[in-house]
TrEMBL record:
It comes from the Bacteria. This is Circularly permuted ATP-grasp type 2 domain-containing protein. InterPro entries: ATP-dep_Glu-Cys_Ligase-2, CP_ATPgrasp_2, UCP005522. Pfam families: CP_ATPgrasp_2. Residues 64-441 form the Circularly permuted ATP-grasp type domain. PANTHER family: BLR5612 PROTEIN, SLL1039 PROTEIN. It comes from Methylopila turkensis.
């Protein structure tokens, strides 16, 4: 919110004035109101392995994060460039593999990647698009510089919180909205549905049938699945609701079988079809992959996109963008040490107390070491892990992440944030709703914003002026 000299950024001027004038009692009351609203709505997040709080609310911060229109324009261009490169890379590694032949990406990072699906080698997908919904995690380090922290190319979550956060803020702070021209996010559901329909296979009817496939009520993101199906006006289905006949997918209904053309699946690859992947999976649809290869149904995102979103491949994204697009990256990567390389490993082992070390296939803030905040025992544990399996880790410097004003027990205080914008890519172009999900580390000094690790969320305002 503030510049180095302590003055308030222009975009935050009205908010800063409002915060200065708002009595603490009012803010406390609004916090309680927000929590009550979220409980009534039923927004919960399941935490696997946490017996005390398997269903809980994600903490919500009532102070919005503000981004200017100029900043958003620059971010949007960078996001579009990055997702275009991701799509080309995935198509290439399952196709001609030119980037491997050129020696830019080591073969083993593709073929030994647990998310690589040999079943997709040589296969085409509808409209030659693989990543239809991307969640790109962004961090800011100064007034001008945004870094990409992570690419989520499988089934990025969190958009329901983006939409609900905005709805709650409009209800609780109408006076603040009256003072700002905030770009709307409400149209995301319409944009998503239009994207999904545009991806229907060419054999589909003019009005394609779209469904959302969920693993069921015990999944940690089930709330989001039901929320999105409702917002999109499509059926929420489980595997048992679908069947395949003559390489066409059908949904069981009270009026008989109904053809399904696009499946927005929130189910991991290995559970989709027991005839191809895990035979013990009761979550998927037998024969689904056969219908997919026959191009009679579109799966969103495509099977095998996980080959592009691990942290080792992330480190090559600048080279990937240059290789496919012939352009310099608009959004920078965080400088990354690949521990699989001996020289990098030696550096990381010598500087563990200064670095953030992450598992290549880790997610959710698990399996990582934040060196400056770690105990000696944790550092030594990771030293042993690195020596035993260096290829499983990358390391990055601890960035001076930007902070946003956040309402905590002690009042308004700075907390570290990141941003997850959602990029929709259909056969008719790219759609990016202004804003995204801002995640906030609620603990003082913490750099971990993941909800599974105690992080919260806040509304993201892109000023439409």
């Amino acid at each position: 919110m503030s510049l180095a000299d302590g003055s308030v950024r222009t975009a935050y001027a009205k908010l800063a004035r409002w915060l200065k004038e708002a009595p603490a009692d009012l803010l406390n009351y609004r916090v309680e109101e927000a929590e009550l609203l979220f409980r009534r709505i039923g927004i919960t997040f399941a935490v696997y392995g946490d017996q005390q709080a398997q269903e809980r609310l994600i903490p919500f911060d009532i102070i919005p994060r503000i981004i200017t229109n100029d900043e958003w324009t620059r971010l949007s261009k960078g996001l579009e460039q990055r997702v275009d490169a991701l799509n080309r890379y995935i198509a290439d590694v399952y196709g001609r593999r030119e980037i491997l032949k050129a020696g830019i990406i080591p073969n083993d990072l593709v073929f030994q990647n647990a998310a690589f699906r040999p079943e997709m080698a040589g296969k085409s997908v509808p409209h030659d698009l693989w990543v239809h919904i991307a969640g790109i995690d962004i961090v800011r380090v100064d007034a001008e510089t945004f870094y990409v922290l992570e690419d989520n190319a499988r089934t990025p979550s969190g958009v329901s919180y983006m939409l609900e956060n905005r709805e709650v803020m409009i209800r609780l702070f109408p006076e603040l909205f009256a003072q700002h021209r905030v770009a709307p996010v409400e149209r995301y559901a319409d944009e998503l549905l239009a994207t999904l329909r545009s991806l229907a296979p060419r054999s589909a009817p003019a009005d394609p049938n779209v469904v959302l496939l969920t693993p069921g009520i015990y999944n940690s993101a089930y709330y989001e699945h039901s929320f999105l199906a409702d917002k999109l006006g499509i059926e929420l289905v489980e595997g048992r609701d679908l069947f395949v006949r003559d390489d066409v997918v059908y949904m069981r209904t009270t009026e008989g079988p109904q053809r399904v053309d696009v499946i927005y699946r929130r189910l991991d690859d290995e559970f989709l079809d027991p005839l191809v992947f895990r035979p013990d999976s009761a979550l998927g649809v037998p024969g689904l992959i056969s219908a997919y290869h026959a191009q009679n149904v579109t799966l969103t995102n495509a099977i095998g996109t996980g080959v592009a979103d691990d942290k080792a491949i992330y480190s090559y994204m600048p080279e990937i963008i240059k290789f496919y697009l012939g352009e310099e990256p608009i959004l920078k990567n965080v400088p990354t040490h690949r521990c699989r390389e001996p020289e990098a490993l030696a550096y990381v082992l010598d500087h563990l107390e200064e670095l953030v070390v992450k598992e290549v296939h880790g997610s959710g803030g698990y399996g990582m070491l934040v060196g400056p905040h770690a105990s000696k025992e944790q550092v030594e544990l990771f030293r042993a892990k690195l020596k035993a399996s260096p290829g499983g880790f990358i390391a990055q410097p601890t960035l001076a992440l930007s902070t946003c004003p956040t309402y905590v027990n002690s009042g308004v205080a700075p907390r570290h944030v990141d941003l997850r914008p959602f990029v929709l890519t259909g056969s008719d172009g790219v759609r990016i709703v202004p804003g995204g999900l801002t995640r906030v580390a609620m603990k003082e000094g913490s750099l971990v914003v993941n909800s599974s690790q105690g992080g919260g969320t806040k509304d993201t305002w892109v000023l439409d002026e």
